[in-house]
Every structure is written in C-alpha cells, then in structure tokens.
C-alpha cells in the first residue's frame, strides 16, 4: 500500500509486503522515496521545405541523388533517420540513420541516393535524447531528376 506523508514535500511513505519463496514467510519494508520530474521541450515539429535533385556527371549517374531541406521547431536534434518506402509507405526499402550537429537554427540538408527511378515514400525523423518528430513526403525519382 502507498499513502502520502503529512509533509508538504514530494516524499511518500511506502509499505510493501513480499512473499519469501524459500520459507513462506513475509518480508515487510517501510521507507520513504522522493522523485522529481523534469519537463523538456523536445522536438515539436519537422517540415520538409524543399526537395532538389542533384545533377551528377555521367560517370556518377548510376544513382539519383536528392537533397531534402528540413526545418524543425523546439529543441535541436542530434540524429536523423530517413526511411525510404514504397509509394504506400508500407514496405520499407532502406533505412539510413546519421548523427548530426545543429548549432543555432534547425535547418539542415539531408542527401539520399535512389538506385532506380520510381515513386517513393520518404519518412524523415529527427531525434534527440528525449524526443522524436517525423515528416513524410512522396517523391518521384525519374532517372536523375525528382519532382
């Protein structure tokens, strides 16, 4: 059982009972515990504000390369994950996660390769130690160009 103490602090009195598996006797424990709660802002919102196809030389044209310009609100992220899926966003084709360093303003460019033309669902997740936020978009990659 738990009952609040008569003090005005956040301590609570606790009395617990356990069965001892060896002898069938009971163990009683009495004491106080104190707990604190820290409220952090976290990453509140992520937006993909631009998607740009990067023109490569003919010798590098095996894959289509797209830059995603992303902004966020709230605390600054420490890592980014990009999930590339089929157009229904149901079947994952690749997952790439990287640590990032954002100093003043949450504005970053994420570069990803696409091996073949097609329509893809992109999920970009920004995270830190206490929170995560996600933005999604559909992208059509057509032989080195994206729309």
Share of β-strand residues:
over 45%
Structural class: mainly beta
CATH homologous group name of one domain: Immunoglobulins
Number of strands: 11
What is the CATH first-level class name of one domain?
Answer: Mainly Beta
CATH architecture of one domain: Sandwich
Q: Pick out the low-confidence regions.
A: 1-8
Strand order of the largest sheet: 7-6-9-10-11
Order of helices and strands: EEEEEEEEEEE
Radius of gyration: 25 Å
General shape: elongated
How does this model look, in words?
By secondary structure, this protein is an all-beta fold. It has a domain at 43-141: Sandwich (Immunoglobulin-like), CATH 2.60.40.10. Helix content is 0%, strand content 60%. The protein is built from no helices and eleven strands.
Secondary structure blueprint with pairings:
Blueprint: E1 2-4, E2 12-19, E3 26-33, E4 43-54, E5 64-74, E6 79-85, E7 92-99, E8 107-114, E9 118-127, E10 132-142, E11 145-146
Antiparallel strand pairs: 1-2, 2-3, 4-5, 5-8, 6-7, 6-9, 9-10, 10-11
What are the main properties of this structure?
60% strand, integrin binding, mainly beta, Immunoglobulin-like, 147 residues, 11 strands
Can I get a quick summary?
With 147 residues, this protein is an all-beta fold. The chain is built from no helices and 11 strands.
């Amino acid at each position: 059982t738990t009952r609040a103490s008569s003090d005005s602090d956040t301590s609570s009195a606790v009395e617990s009972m356990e069965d001892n598996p060896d002898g069938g006797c009971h163990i009683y424990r009495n004491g106080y515990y104190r707990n604190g709660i820290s409220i952090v802002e976290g990453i509140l919102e992520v937006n993909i504000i631009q998607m740009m196809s990067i023109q490569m030389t003919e010798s590098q044209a095996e894959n289509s390369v797209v830059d995603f310009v992303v902004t966020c609100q709230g605390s600054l992220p420490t890592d980014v994950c990009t999930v590339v899926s089929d157009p229904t966003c149901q079947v994952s084709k690749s997952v790439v996660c990287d640590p990032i360093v954002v100093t003043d303003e949450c504005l970053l460019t994420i570069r990803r390769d696409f091996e073949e033309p097609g329509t893809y669902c992109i999920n970009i997740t920004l995270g830190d130690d206490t929170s995560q936020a996600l933005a999604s978009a559909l992208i059509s990659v057509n032989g080195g160009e994206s729309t």
